[in-house]
Amino acid sequence: MGQYYIIDFDSTFTQVEALDELARISLKDHPDRESIYQQIEDLTNLAMEGKLSFADSLEGRIKLLKANREHLNQLVKILRKKVSPSFSRNSKFFKNHQDEVLIVSGGFKGFITPVVTEYHIKKENIYANTFEFDKDDNIIGYDRTNPLSQEGGKVKLLKELNLQGEIFGIGDGYSDFQLKESGMIKKFFAFTENIERKSVVEKADHVTPSFDEFLYINRLPRAISYPKNRIKCLVVGKVDEEAIAQMKKEGYNIRHHEEIKEDYLQEAGVLLCDEEHQPTPEQLQNAGRLKVIGCFGRVSGRKLNEAACENGIIIFDDPKHNPRSGDFIPKRVIAFMNEGKTHTSCNFPDLQPPRINNAHRLIHIHKNIPGILAKINEVFARHNINIVGEFLVTNTQIGYVITDVNTGYDEQVLSELKGIEHTIKFRLLY
C-alpha cells in the first residue's frame, strides 16, 4: 500500500490562475478587456470558494476567453516562469516520486503538461480538461464528458482511478477540499503560498504555506531542512520596508515589536533592528534559536559582537548607513540562511562557499579549539559518509565549518555532530 500525492495546478503548482492569464493574453486588444478580466476572475473565485459550481464557472470563463493555440503557446511561456518557488526548488522530490505524484486539475492539459513535465511528472499522471478547437485553431469549447469539467469532478476522477494506498491532497480551492469531504483521501492540505481562501482554510486538515512545509511535516525529502514559514523574523525599530518585503517573499514569519525582550528573542530565528534597538549581550545568552542579526546601522560595540559570536549568532550591520541597506542587509541575511555565506559579517570569519548540487550542507559552529575538525571528520568516517566539499574558517573566538556530504545517511550522524564537545551551534542547511 503506497502513498499518493494529488496536487492542484492553478494557484498551487503555479502562482496564478492560468485561465485568468490566458484572458489577459487573448483579450489584450479588446475594448472591454478590463470588464471581461474582472468577470473571469469573479467566476474563478466564486468556484474556488465553493459559491458557484465548478461546471458553471468553467463554462462561463471559456465563453469569455476568445483564445486560440497561439495564445496558449504564449501562456505556457508565462506559466513556466510562474511556478511556485517551493515547488520549483523541490524538483528532486518529483523526480524521486514519479509514480506517486498526480496533477489533478480543473485546468487544461494544453498548458499544464508542458509546464509540469519539466519537473519529472509523468504525462500519464496528469489529469485535466482538454480544449476543443475549430479549423482555425480557435478554442470553441472543451470535452464535457471529462469528469474534471463537471461539478465534483476530482471526486469522480478519484473513484475511477481507485488508487490503493494513502492519498494526500494539496490545493487552494473548494474542489480540492471536496476530496477530503468525500472520505477518499487521508488528509487535505490547504496550500496558501499564493492565495489564502478562508472558506477552504477553515476546512483543511493542515494549512501549508509552502510545499516545503508539506514535505517537512510528512518527513519527506526536501530541498531545505526546515521550512522558513516556521522561522520567526523579529523586526524592531526603523527597518526598511524593502528589507521586510524581501524576508516575506522568502517565506519568513514576520513579527513586529516596539522593543527587544528576552521572550521575543527566544522565539526568533532572525532579528532585523535599527541602531537604536539592539539586543544586549545578556539577552543573547538565552536566544537559543537566533541565528542571524541584521542591523540597519552600526553595531553598538565590541561586547555585543563577542556575545553574539560566543552564542553562534552572526551579525551583518551597515555602519555607513548605506541608502541601499534595504537591499544589502536582507541579501546578506538570506545568503547566510540559505547557503551559509558569512561575507561582510562584522563578527564571523569570512566564507563564501559555492553551492554544490546533490549534496547535504551541514554547518558546525564551535569554540576555536584545536582538533574539532578532526572530530567532525571522524564522525563522517565512522558512518562511511563521503565528503563532497569542506570549508573551515576561524577567528579568535570560533571555528566555522561547512561540510557538503552525499545524501543517504542515518539521522544519528546529526546527533553525533551536535554532541561534539565545544559545539556552539549545528544545523542541517539543506
From TrEMBL:
GO cellular component terms given for this protein: cytoplasm
Pfam families: ACT_AHAS_ss, HAD
Entries under InterPro entries matching the protein: ACT-like_dom_sf (IPR045865), ACT_dom (IPR002912), AHAS_small-like_ACT (IPR054480), HAD-like_SerB (IPR050582), HAD-like_sf (IPR036412), HAD_sf (IPR023214)
UniProt entry tagged with the keyword Zinc: no
Recorded catalytic activity of this chain's protein: O-phospho-D-serine + H2O = D-serine + phosphate; O-phospho-L-serine + H2O = L-serine + phosphate
Superkingdom of the source species: Bacteria
GO molecular function: L-phosphoserine phosphatase activity; magnesium ion binding
Coiled-coil annotated spans: 55-82
Domain ACT: 361-430
BP terms from Gene Ontology: L-serine biosynthetic process
Cofactor: Mg(2+)
Alphabetically ordered keywords of this record: Amino-acid biosynthesis, Coiled coil, Hydrolase, Magnesium, Metal-binding, Serine biosynthesis
E.C. code: 3.1.3.3
Known pathway: Amino-acid biosynthesis; L-serine biosynthesis; L-serine from 3-phospho-D-glycerate: step 3/3
NCBIfam families, alphabetized: HAD-SF-IB
PANTHER family referenced in this protein's UniProt entry, alphabetically: PHOSPHOSERINE PHOSPHATASE (PTHR43344)
Name of protein: phosphoserine phosphatase
Organism (species): Mucilaginibacter galii
